[in-house]
Design a protein that fits this description.
- By secondary structure, the chain is mostly helical.
- The chain has two domains: 86 residues, Cytochrome c-like domain (Cytochrome Bc1 Complex, Chain D, domain 2, Orthogonal Bundle); 89 residues, Cytochrome c-like domain (Cytochrome Bc1 Complex, Chain D, domain 2, Orthogonal Bundle), CATH 1.10.760.
- Helix content is 49%, strand content 7%.
- It contains ten helices and six strands, in the order ααββαααββαββαααα.
- The strands form three sheets. The protein has a two-stranded antiparallel sheet with strand order 1-2. A two-stranded antiparallel ribbon has the order 3-4.
- The longest helix has 33 residues.
- It is elongated.
- About 6% of the residues have low confidence.
Length: 237
């Protein structure tokens, strides 16, 4: 059993070591901040975007860097997950992207505001957060069997980036994705490539009144998506 003086010494030394360790860890953390946050990439546009994020109380619905509300999607890695075109379209008109689905307020952001918010999301998404948040388990590869008149030969093709950033938000493929639109399994057996191209260019022109929005896709992305989707046959596993 410790004497009174020994206990006091033990307390003082232990407290000193704990305080010293805490201070050293704090200093090390602060030292790492510029590198891990890529401080050199914090542009004036991103700073303006941060101001818009705060003044419009985006954290009232969304979470970023682990802080905020959980009413709407977590946005720390939204730039990587959805890409700048999707972000811009959502900020421009959320309802047009999700007719009858989204409850996000339309803030009437100007084009420059949208660019600034996108720049802020890009900067946040490029931070080194030691693996936070974990990436969603959405496959990058699709194995398609029977391509070309039921040959039964399996082929492995990459999902286009635009598919994982936009299409998967509303549509399911092999059980992964949203429930807003129909599942895309076997879509290549139902629709030919020319139809898919026309659909991706302007869904309303093909089927007036459809809930499918006109996505901000480039010609190259449309070519990639139509080639991918047209190979999703009914017998794909």
């Amino acid at each position: 059993m410790l004497s009174k003086s020994s206990a006091k010494l033990f307390f003082l030394v232990g407290t000193g070591l704990c305080v010293g360790t805490f201070l050293l860890l704090t200093i090390d953390t602060i030292r790492r901040v510029p590198e891990q946050t890529n401080q050199q990439n914090l542009s004036e546009s991103a700073i303006r975007g941060k101001h818009l994020w705060e003044t419009n109380n985006c954290m009232g619905c969304h979470t970023i860097l682990g802080e905020g509300a959980y009413y709407a999607p977590e946005l720390t890695k939204v730039y990587e997950r959805r890409g700048p075109k999707f972000i811009a379209a959502m900020l421009k008109d959320p309802y047009a992207m999700y007719p009858g689905q989204r409850k996000m307020v339309r803030y009437d952001f100007s084009d420059s505001d949208i660019q600034d918010l996108t720049a802020f999301m890009k900067w946040i998404g490029e931070m080194d957060l030691n693996g936070f948040p974990p990436k969603p388990n959405i496959g990058q590869i699709a194995t398609i069997e029977g391509v070309g008149a039921g040959t039964g030969v399996a082929q492995t093709i990459d999902r286009p980036i635009a598919f994982n950033q936009m299409c998967i938000v509303c549509h399911k493929l092999r059980g992964q994705g949203g429930d807003v639109g129909p599942a895309l399994d076997g879509v290549g057996s139902r629709l030919d490539r020319d139809y898919i191209v026309r659909w991706l260019h302007d869904p309303q022109a093909v089927k007036p009144g459809t809930l499918m929005p006109k996505l901000p896709l480039s010609e190259e992305e449309i070519v990639e998506l139509s080639a991918f989707l047209s190979q999703l046959k009914e017998d794909a596993k």
